[in-house]
Specification:
Blueprint: H1 3-13, E1 28-37, E2 40-54, E3 61-68, E4 71-78, E5 84-91
Antiparallel strand pairs: 1-2, 1-5, 2-3, 3-4
């Protein structure tokens, strides 16, 4: 067995895969994230717009941007993280790109994303 086969074997057997709902860039989601403080554990929600999804398989991540006190805050979540409790899709957005980094330069009403009607 070479290195690639060993890595693929470990990814398939050892690492647990979490079933995430289907979402893409432009969607507004809420991530319920487990936080450990000392010996206590609590769940914190992080709601924002998905800027991008990148990577494949075990290395897949998604970036969520929210506005907190007129300051944009971005956080990158690994899709295979055991600390993600669940992900809820609040709104589906209509965007033409897979990576919407142009939102970083927009403020107020210009930063709104059209909602997809289902």
């Amino acid at each position: 067995m070479n290195k690639a086969e060993i890595i693929r074997f470990v990814e398939d057997t050892v690492i647990q895969k979490i079933q995430l709902p289907s979402f893409k860039a432009g969607d507004t989601i809420t991530v319920h994230y487990k936080i450990k403080e000392g010996n206590k554990e609590r769940i914190q929600t992080y709601q924002g717009v998905v800027l991008q999804r990148s990577g494949k398989g075990v290395n897949e991540t998604f970036t969520v941007r929210k506005i907190s006190g007129n300051i944009g805050v971005e956080r990158i979540f690994p899709c295979t993280s055991p600390f993600i409790d669940k992900v809820e899709v609040n709104k589906h957005g209509v965007v033409r790109r897979a990576r919407i980094f142009y939102l970083r330069g927009l403020q107020g009403k210009k930063a709104r994303i059209k909602e997809e009607r289902i």
